[in-house]
Automatic annotation (TrEMBL):
Lineage of source species: Archaea, Thermoproteota, Thermoprotei, Thermoproteales, Thermoproteaceae
Protein name in the entry: Thioredoxin reductase
Annotated signal peptide: none
A GO MF label: thioredoxin-disulfide reductase (NADPH) activity
Record-linked NCBIfam families: TRX_reduct
Iron-sulfur as UniProt keyword: no
Pfam families (UniProt xref): Pyr_redox_2
GO-annotated cellular components: cytoplasm
Amino acid sequence: MSSGGLLTSTMLNTTGLELSGEVAEKLKGKVLDTVIIGGGPAGLSAAMYAARFGLSTVVITEEIGGQVGKAGWVEDYLGYVRITGPDLVNKFEEHVRYYNVPILIDSVERITISNDLFKVTTVSGDEFTSRTVIIAVGERRRKLNVPGEDKYSGKGVSYCAPCDAPLFKDKVVAVVGGGDSAASSALLLTEYATKVYLIHRRSSLRAQPIYQDLLLKNSKITIIWNTVVKELKGDKVLKSAILQRTDTGELMELPIDGIFIEIGAEPPVEFFKVIGLDLDKNGYINVNTMMETNIKGIYAAGDCVSLTPRGFRQIITAAAQGALAAYSAYNYILTKYGQNREK
């Protein structure tokens, strides 16, 4: 994903979203072939392929598009030289809707197993029974965990540059991080802010070379190397950040109007552990090349799996893994239940 131009996109299309109770009522007493948890590129790709394989399914997600919907310009998804994140999500949703796959806006509270079937219970209390489950929940944004971060959240502290960049027109802002997301956010913010500081704890960036070149050539951007944020200060809104050099320990105060946290993400480990999934040392779901987990009938795809290289979690790889997960679920169902199973 990349950004670096004036963000002009349509809003995410949320027409036709099913209400929790309506979906549950329609599917009451039915055994679905698969329940897909997560509506990002992996989950929506899995939904599209599941439908094409003739699998009865429902998608349960907190939001359609996941992190893609928060992206600025996407320039690395095949078929689109340049498209905004929200517009790409609309394309994804439109494709899935073509196959009449219900998409439920909700969160999953628990998954239980009985007689080789899965019962998926949502926070709203609805229950869905299925033969397989595809987990594509992605990651959640990491926080700095410093004094003032929660206090000024929404008052200068942001985790989404494409969402909030227009609020900082003619302001001074900072971005924390050194990867692709931090770089693309900094570039996007130059379209609005008068000055953008990129704060990174190391002496070199992890971002792709093309991003690094753009950062260094942009006169609005100043990179502050070997530095971490220790505290965020202000009154009713954010006014400054207390920074500390990682090499000398020196403290300094940086006056800013806003700060964007882009220090990566982490998987929802607690949710995975409750299910009994095998995880790697970083909390990502261990899967094989066919996206199979240690639990028969449960598959996983996208940013939540260990198979995806850290530092290279891409829209296109997530979509590919979603397709593989659906294919594996299809083969499992075909072998275990046959074509004439009740739908």
